[in-house]
Write a structure and sequence with these properties.
Blueprint: E1 2-3, E2 9-10, E3 35-44, E4 50-58, E5 64-70, H1 75-89, E6 94-98, H2 111-119
Parallel strand pairs: 3-6
Antiparallel strand pairs: 1-2, 3-4, 4-5
Helix pairs in contact: 1-2
């Protein structure tokens, strides 16, 4: 308890904590090839050279459909990987992009890939 200028005790006020909204629950896929998750990851070799990976995972069974590894992954290459997967396995009902920087938006350099996915007919 604090004492005010009048010498009387008064309650101390605490800041209200910010409680973030809970994220929407993702619907569980019922079968294979219904929902895919795609995302980037980067790492470095022991000597400091960096590399990136782009992976596409089937959400139903956790199968890695494709992992593309290179020092530079450009949008055209990512689009090519998605085109090949769609040709081989068919178009998924939903494609979820997992962004490393923000849960709500894709990094700016992946805008071209995002536009491709949005125009492909899959829910994004």
């Amino acid at each position: 308890m604090e004492t005010g200028s009048s010498g009387l005790a008064r309650r101390r006020r605490f800041k209200k904590r910010y409680r973030p909204e809970l994220p929407d629950v993702l619907p569980q896929p019922i079968g294979a090839n219904q929902a895919w998750s795609a995302g980037f990851m980067s790492d470095a070799f022991y000597d400091g050279r960096a590399f990136r990976t782009f992976s596409v995972i089937d959400d139903y069974n956790g199968e890695a459909l494709r992992i593309e590894i290179d020092v530079l992954l450009i949008a055209e290459r990512v689009i090519g990987v998605l085109d090949q997967l769609i040709t081989i396995r068919g178009r998924p009902e939903r494609l979820r992009a997992v962004a490393a920087r923000s849960a709500n938006t894709l990094p700016a350099r992946n805008q071209r890939s995002a536009l491709y996915v949005q125009g492909s007919g899959a829910d994004y």
